[in-house]
Amino acid sequence: MRRSDEFERDFRGIFDAEHVSLFRHLHRLIGDRDVAADIAQESFVRLYQRGSLPDDPRAWLVTVAHNLMRDEHRTRTRRARLLEVEGEALQPVATTSPESALASSQRQALVRRALETLPERDRRALMLRHEGYSYREIAVALDYAPSGIGKLLVRANIAFRSAFEEVNRHAPQ
Amino acid sequence: MHPSEGDLLALIDGELEPKEAGAVRSHLAECAECAGRKAELEVLLADNRGALDSLDAGDPPATTADHVMAIARLREPLPSRRPTRYYLKAASITLLIGSAALAVAMPGSPIREVALDLIDDFREGEPEIQEDALRTGVALEPTGRLVVSFAERQDRGTIEVVLASTSRAQVDASEEGASFSVASNSIAVGNAGAAASYVVTVPERLADVDIRVGDRTVFRKTGEEVVSVPPASEGRYLIPFASID
Fold first, then answer.
1. Is the ipTM of this complex over 0.90?
2. CA of B55: how far to CAs of A31, A172, B49, B197, in Å?
3. Cβ contact B60–A40 (<8 Å)
4. Is the distance from CB of B200 to CB of B136 less than 8 angstroms?
5. Distance from CA of A168 to the nearest CA of B (A)
6. How far is CA B44 from CA A91, A114, A125, A147, B38, in A?
7. Per the CB < 8 Å rule, is B166 touching A127?
8. Cβ B65 vs Cβ A12: under 8 Å
9. For B140, which DSSP code?
10. CA distance A55 to chain B (A)
11. B137 or A111, which is more confident?
């Protein structure tokens, strides 16, 4: 399939602008760097295969990525794998001491446990907003009414805070 | 009318239209209760942001738009490569099979010998179709030492080696012309006469990787140490075929 020079130029621009952001969002959501990288890449492959840009490429990429995540979860039992690798995958790159590395890893585990108590849409909305996606983009990605995103995010933030405090209370000291 | 918490959050996030934002701000200036709710939301957001920041994702593994485009192009269906004469031969062989069947039923018959000779002639002219011809994207997950070997030095084109945070090794070509075969820990690229450029994705946690062109090693990874010819430039391992002796 032949693609126009203009499309290829625009595609490169979107890749440069959005790849890192999409990967970061997926990595936070999935917790597995390899899977996040694969899904981010596959999302862009599909954008290129499309041959023309959608109206909102940023939101389109997130929608595709979320669909790929769902497929990945079904086929690889992602949740079990996430729990299995969580301990080693969340080690920080630079730490001042083994104790601080352990503390950081434990905190990440608690954050993830809290996130997993949220309904999937609330969790995704929270993470998309954290990565800087606009309400409009979040609405497109989640197939949700734009006027309801504010309320959705309030609910997600309150639920996350409550869950995080709960898991902290029960965490081993 | 008091704004909803959704509107207060939208105001904090800068997501309200200017006219709506102005109306909410005017209300907050006069309503201590709503101003207090807004302040509580801001504290909630700040606390949650701190927790979510602990999931800091870092940078993605190295990849480029060109790499992605190469993968997408490689998945596109290939045009039929079988020449017309192939189909004529196919029709002929159908007749020959019938003859061969008769010949088999008649041991010692001269027809048998002719039929078998014709079958052999057809097979000699049959185009060779290799497994995974012209395709990459094979999910090769090496368990030990990885070897990627290119059969020949090309007159043009490049090999770009990308160390990626992935479990899969992969070779992607920019255009048709090469063939690929895969074994448990190796990828062989039949690139005689080809002019493509290639992206070789290597799992960065693999401790032992060799990339060869003919009998020349152009990239070697041993643990964390990487040696390539030519050396890396601006973080990229880009090896022009022309630079290979």
1. no
2. 8, 20, 10, 37
3. yes
4. no
5. 12
6. 27, 15, 16, 21, 10
7. no
8. yes
9. B
10. 20
11. A111
